Amino acid sequence: MKIYFLVFDIFGMGGTVRTVLNVTNYLAQSGYDIEIISVFRYRESPFFEIDPRIKIQVLHDVVNRKTDNIGFKSTIVKKLSKMKSRLIHPDDEAYDFFSLLTDMKMFNAIKEITSGILVTTRPSFNIFASKYRNKGVYIIGQEHLNFAIYPERMKNSILKHYKNLDYLATLTNDDTEDYKRLLEANSKKVKVKKITNSIPKLQGVTSSLESKTIIAAGRLAPQKGFDLLIEAFKIVHPKFPDWKLRIYGYGREKNNLQAMIEDNKLYNHAILMGPTQHIETELLNASIYALSSRFEGFGMVIVEAMQCGVPVVSFDCPKGPSEIISNNVDGILVEDGNVEEFAKALMELMGNPEKRKQFGKKAVENVKQYEIENIGKIWRDTIDEISQRSGL
């Protein structure tokens, strides 16, 4: 049974790409026939490693497209590319990237799939696939965020269309219960199943926790709350002037965050590092990971930090962190949005190397449940369930 994954841009960076590749690389190595359908391609080479056994189909190649073509076909393509999408939900945060041209390409691609499993990786793709997939194609929709954070139009579309999925893969216990309550009562078809994000198997190397470095990573977007982190570090800095804050990632908030750093005279202490392909290397050179998000679907980077033996200070935001972190055992959970308490938690670990090491050791033990061998088994069991249902 062939397995397809529909993603925004498999060549890019970010948590969804990383987790999709953890799973697809594992399945390819386990002998499954895997194809990734990438709607876009904005990079010449992939940010993360892709197993060569995986087939990649790119629908809209922004890198290699020819923009100087003249002719009727080229004119039509340009017109379609400027027209708003009709098939992607308007509340998708990346809606402006899509167009009538990408609609056509996505529709044609999904209609070419006549059997097997299609895994969709964002709400608008889940909705799209539930409406247009061919009979005989099984859909596993992935839900990376909790229902409550969506706008009303998206909530209504989720309730209307998710019930036509075969499986909905959720990331946390709370989300699993919420979606079971919302969907399974109104549909005999969809099965809601918790399948968390995964990490590669631990290589046995952990941080010494001696570097006076706090690290954070993610899209420079309001969701990630890096403005709150800089506010907390402003409180911390006078008492621990020899510590540094390094924030990895890129995004639309870069200029605003840089202005905050300069206005608070934190330059040379709080540093926007840009994106990195090797977050694990940076974690091994850090002593604390700070997660300041306003909301999270899961918090993949929490797991990666803990795997490297780095204790995490995190807002207890909805909904992932509290499921991963055991408060005052392997990290610290802070009241959601409380910047002063966040600063106190950072200073608690900054000033206590023994507690950092105690938490770090426990963190390594507690995140083994998220290693790909364990999460991969859930994927394989789900694929086997579908194979049995389809008689293949």
TrEMBL record:
Pfam family, one: Glycos_transf_1
Taxonomic source organism: Neobacillus paridis
Xref: SUPFAM superfamilies: UDP-Glycosyltransferase/glycogen phosphorylase (SSF53756)
Annotated InterPro entries: Glyco_trans_1
Annotated ranges, domain Glycosyl transferase family: 209-363
Protein name: Glycosyltransferase family 4 protein
